[in-house]
Amino acid sequence: MSGFQKGATYGQIKEYVKEHSGLSVSSLYIAQVKQKYGIIERECYNKPKSENARQPQCPPEKEAAITEALRWFKMIE
Q1: Is 39:76 a contact under the CB 8 Å cutoff?
Q2: DSSP letter at 20?
Q3: pLDDT at residue 5 in the model
Q4: Which pTM does this prediction carry?
Q5: CA terminus-to-terminus distance, the chain
Q6: SS3 (DSSP) at 3
Q7: How far apart are CA 65 and CA 58, in angstroms?
Q8: Buried b (16+ CB within 10 A) or exposed e, 25-51
Q9: Cα separation, 77 vs 28, whole angstroms
Q10: Band (2; pLDDT cuts 50, 70, 90)
Q11: d(CA 47, CA 52)
Q12: 3-state secondary structure 14-61
């Protein structure tokens, strides 16, 4: 990894999850799990225009797989 990058890219996380659990995860789910652990990179640029817009929530089995990947890449303890 390059000197300025801390952790893994979304692509690397998706690849790890697919390889180790067989699950396909979206960038949205990765972002939700990272936010849960306080890893917030920047403000979302494509926010919904309405206040009450709904977005899908990460299922527990995918959250567990993403959390395992974040631990593997030493992004969380």
Answers
A1: yes
A2: H
A3: 55
A4: 0.82
A5: 19
A6: coil
A7: 11
A8: beeebbbbbbeeeeeeeeeeeeeeeee
A9: 22
A10: very low
A11: 11
A12: HHHHHHHHCCCCCHHHHHHHHHHCCCCCCCCCCCCCCCCCCCCCCCHH
